[in-house]
Amino acid sequence: MYLYAIRCEASAVPLVRIFLYSLLGIPLLFLDAVLLRLLPGMMAVRLTTVQGLILLGGAIGYLFVHFLLRKPERMYLWAHEFTHLFVAKLFMRKVHGFHITSRSGGKVVIDRTNVAIDLAPYSMPLYNAMALLPVMLFREEGAARKIYLGVAAFLFSMHICFSVEGFIDGQPDVRRSGRIFSLAVVALAVMLWAPVLTAPASYAGFSGVPAFYREWVEKGMETVVRLLSRGL
Predict the structure, then answer these.
(1) pTM across the whole model
(2) 101-106, long-range: CB within 8 Å, 24+ apart, which pairs?
């Protein structure tokens, strides 16, 4: 098992902080569950049956590699630590070290961290974002979009599998703010990526993403109100 982590000079984590973040994470997890229940049906409207099968094939292909062949741990490790580094730089943190080894995994050593830096690698599928760029720039049609969908599903499945393992293993990144809050934030972020990553193949394209989010949130709020009015 590799260790994916950041280290900072002030490494002690107050238990009060974890407790308060966990309290905030509980209602957010409830909202995540509501949005997740709505997501498959709304995504199905945006994509054709063939496109859905391509996504399924890409996901199954990665699961085969992950569980039956060999996990691409080094590939994921580079993306994980680079995302820590990138977001740390956005917050103007001083980076003291960036290390990746085959034995112990990787770490980014910085002076201070925060929730965004800690959870960025779990919340942002870096390889998916990289695969999205050429599609956005060149606007290829036909077979290229189908290939992109398969690759996107493969890479997104890799991101989810390693993120889940990070939570199960109790990586320091997710423990710093408590696993409950970290899971709630990461789950929401990962779901938010779904309409963006499939936009190149959808009939509405990227211009339809804001409308998708708006409808999704409205339906989610309606569901929450209905559940609360019925006492869950």
Answers:
(1) 0.90
(2) 102/74, 104/2, 104/3, 105/1, 105/2, 105/3, 105/4, 105/5, 105/77, 106/2, 106/3, 106/4, 106/5, 106/77, 106/78, 106/80, 106/81
